[in-house]
Amino acid sequence: MPEQTPAEPTTSPAANIGVVGLAVMGSNLARNLASREGNTVAVYNRSRSKTDELVAEHPEAEFVPAFSYEEFAASLQKPRTAIIMVKAGGPTDAVIDSLMDVFEPGDIIIDGGNSLFTDTIRREKAVRERGFNFVGMGVSGGEEGALLGPSLMPGGPDEAWVTLGPILRSIAAVAEGEPCVTHVGHDGAGHFVKMVHNGIEYADMQLIAEAYDLIRRGTGKSPAEIADVFAEWNRGELESYLIEITAEVLRQTDAATGQPLVDVVVDEAGAKGTGAWTVQTALDLGVPVSGIAEATFARSLSSHREQRDVSGGLPGPAEDAFTVADADAFIEQVRLALYASKIVAYSQGFDEIRAGAAQYGWTIDLGAISRIWRGGCIIRAQFLNRIADAYAAEPELPVLLTAPYFVEALGRAQDAWRDIVATAAAAGIPSPAFSSSLAYYDGLRARRLPAALIQGQRDFFGAHTYKRIDKPGTFHTLWSADRTEVEAEDTH
Ligand SMILES: NC(=O)c1ccc[n+]([C@@H]2O[C@H](COP(=O)([O-])OP(=O)(O)OC[C@H]3O[C@@H](n4cnc5c(N)ncnc54)[C@H](OP(=O)(O)O)[C@@H]3O)[C@@H](O)[C@H]2O)c1
Q1: Were both Cys, which of 50, 123, 215, 399 would link to 45 (CB 3.0–4.6 Å)?
Q2: Do residues 146 and 139 lie in contact, with contact meaning Cβ atoms separated by under 8 Å?
Q3: Residue 154: beta bridge partners?
Q4: Its pTM surpasses 0.90
């Protein structure tokens, strides 16, 4: 009998998706992936201990651990699909380079970190030139979102979306039956939208903080009593995750002192930079995102302790001099001012996305963006349905706050909004986001802006020229001669 040749061992790769970077976000995302039907998840971390810990603590996930990039690549089915969840910047570049050394053309590399969208555009180009697919993906929802269902904002090529779409739909949060993920657009579109999401988050948080401050200083209510106000607001049109957690934070008592926690926390707000990116990008695009900018600057101001220490004696109304006669009526006014300012913040954020899409050649469905923010992410809110409705009715809406629903809401709120901004100014209570939002609103409404005077000044000192309302062309006044007007070349 002829000798039988033993069959080749068939060791087909076990995993359909991999995660690199197993700190809090990566490990939770890996667990989320593993919990979904049909997924087998390969995991790799630079330092081995995190991989060992994750695998030991979660046997139910049946992870496929890898301890080198080669092992990681060998454990993945083709096209290999790997999500990177490491520190943004240099570490992300290092991991991409290592993956390209062991992956093959056609494989998909996803950066789920908080990368700057211009880095993503650069990386996408470099990775594509080597034949791989690269997807920059915004992930929102913090560690809980990563584990239970985040809002996902992937960019990148259509080809990658074919493989990635079903996987991402399976792990995303679900809002009103829809998974909170959409293919945002090409290359850096996903990270751009995530950046603006974070900018809006800054504005929303600052507005809520201003509302709390006004109520506390105007009514003398305790943080726990104000928690009840926010809990009540969370049952109406302001219903959102941020309002909900505000009530929780205000209700928290410090175990060590018995004081409200909010009174023992140092009043200096930190930032990781995405708010600043949103504002810097908006400045480059020429988009006024004043609410987001004020929120970002308010955090900066709060953190300049050395300046605040020497400024406490500056003249102004006494801190304890402000009380309102009718607390309930005042609280309702603050609620309306908050809602109106929030509409402005979102309108400005969507404006920035529109401008970014035009500048970078992305096709972004603004209605879809508002829908994927309804679940999983930090700014999830009932209100996003109204934005989705507005874009469904008019996809090319030039200014979100001119949609009929928002016009009605602003009409209802504007008297209270003006009163609150005026009251805060008179009482010396800083309310930069409330007041800048109102100024933006009035700027948009104004038939004539003093920009005409600025054009006159620019023409005076720099011959920058101006246009006239009554005839076409570009003009310059001979300011240092006889002050007659001449036609000129448009120099802006
Ligand atoms: N935390 C959040 O709420 C949140 C929300 C959305 C998005 N994000 C983004 O998600 C990403 C991960 O966040 P995170 O908080 O989980 O972790 P992180 O603290 O930002 O990063 C730690 C991870 O990066 C790895 N790492 C650092 N330098 C590396 C290098 N040169 N090569 C390979 N790996 C390197 C670390 O590996 P070692 O263990 O070996 O040090 C560790 O796995 C970040 O981009 C973050 O901005 C975070």
Answers
A1: 50
A2: yes
A3: 137
A4: yes
Q: What does the longest C-alpha to C-alpha distance in the chain come to?
A: 116
Cα 47 from Cα 408, distance rounded (Å): 56
Ligand 1 pocket: which of 85, 148, 379 to mutate (most atoms <8 Å of CB)? Answer: 85
CB 133 within 8 A of CB 106: yes
* Residue 385 assigned to a binding site: no
CA of 229 to the centre of ligand 1 (A): 37
Q: Give the count of beta carbons closer than 10 Å to the beta carbon of residue 81.
A: 23
Instruction: Read off the pLDDT of each residue in 166-178 and give the average, rounded to a whole number.
Output: 95
- Can you tell me the distance from the alpha carbon of 391 to that of 273, in angstroms, rounded to the nearest whole number? 29
145 C-beta neighbours (distance < 10 Å), count: 26
CA distance 115 to 189: 11
Q: Write the pLDDT tens digit of every residue in 196-242.
A: 999 999 999 999 999 999 999 999 999 999 999 999 999 999 999 99
Active site residues: 194, 201
- Token pair 């679940």 is found at 375
Three-state secondary-structure class, residue 105: coil
- Pocket (CB within 6 angstroms of ligand 1): 21-26, 45-47, 50, 85-88, 91, 94-95, 113-114, 139, 142-143
Residue 179, φ and ψ in degrees, nearest 5: -65, 140
292 closest CA partner among 389, 437, 413: 437
DSSP 6: P
Query: How many Å lie between the centroid of ligand 1 and the Cα of residue 20?
Result: 9
* 141 is annotated as contributing to ligand binding: yes
Q: How far is CA 443 from CA 291, 416, 451, in A?
A: 13, 18, 11
Cβ atoms within 10 Å, residue 427: 19
Could you tell me the sign of the dihedral formed by the alpha carbons of 225, 231, 236, 242, in that order?
positive
**pLDDT range class, residue 320, cuts 50, 70, 90:** confident
Q: 367: annotated binding-site residue?
A: no
Write the CA distances from 131 to 58, 100, 213, 242, integer angstroms: 35, 10, 54, 42
